[in-house]
Amino acid sequence: MLKPKDKISACIDYFRMTFKRHDIDIFLQTVLKMRKEYMLQQPSSKFGYVELYQFDQIRVYNSAPDDERGIMFELGGQGCRQFEGIMDAQNRDWYSFIELALQEGGSITRLDIAIDDTIGYVHIPDCLRFTQQGYVVSKFKTFDFNGSGNITTGEQEGVSIYYGSKSSDNYLVMYQKNYEQAKKQKIDIEEFGVWNRYEIRLKDEKARSALELIMKTKDLQLVAKGVLRSFLRFEYTKPLKRGKAKLNKIKKGWETFLEDVQAIRLSVEPKTNFYRRSENWLRSQASATMKMVQEADVILNRESAIDEMIAKATLSDRQEHMLEVLTCDVSDIIC
């Protein structure tokens, strides 16, 4: 995952919509505008749906004919980026897709908006400290957190704060994305730089209200700023003997962040490199082992053990599907 270039940007990071219909062929063709033959079809038990049509991280579930739930369209973070790649090839964007989906009877059941901050308006470990001490005003009654620390400096690192209950219709997460990605990419944190992420997670009625406002305004400013301001602010709720400078910095940084959120627009990062996880895993986890076996073949003067393994291997239906997608063009997938 690449660090955003803008100092502040926003994207849709999770999208789930249901349709009370079972005509999966027509749905794929007219709503997603994707060819069914490029979707991997398999049984499913998630949420009680019986069928899954999958294109890498783009997932469409279908219920039994007598189940009124019908079709569910679901995208996680990577799925959103991949669907942006599909929409880009179709000359569509989120707004035109959502407008059509609503016309086709779609009902949003979950919507996550992620806001990326690469200048560090606030220091998230300090946000945690003042939250723990009660210097926040929030609509939420509970919070949770996790993270790690540096024994030498005593500093907290990789902190995540969860405001609200994960089972509720709305909650807020703020975390140090740079620590997560630096660890994943094996990059020094100083080289990676600052990257805070704030995720607004909305379900059911909260998601429907937010989507209605997004479609009305065609931008995220009212939703993002309004939701964040109603969710949380840092205040002197009681006297503070030590740490006033840090709390003042947090207060000012948060207010500046909320003001700058007004200027953001929905950003996209279209991705069309579908099904690369297996290839990346092979490169990062198995390449050294393959090289060792090859060198052993040379030393022992024997035929290639890896070639023999490949010759005897049989591709599964899923792997056959992945191969077809890997070798096609995105224009072949759309309709």
UniProtKB/TrEMBL annotation:
Alphabetical list of Pfam families matching this protein: Rep_trans, Rol_Rep_N
Any coiled-coil regions, as ranges: none
Ranges where the Replication initiation protein-like C-terminal domain occurs: 107-310
Keyword line: Initiation factor, Protein biosynthesis
GO molecular function, one term: translation initiation factor activity
InterPro entries for this protein: EF-hand-dom_pair, REP-like_C, Rol_Rep_N
Keyword Glycoprotein found: no
Keyword match Cell inner membrane: no
Name of the molecule in the record: Replication initiation factor
Species annotation: Listeria grayi (Listeria murrayi)
Native organism taxonomy: Bacteria, Bacillati, Bacillota, Bacilli, Bacillales
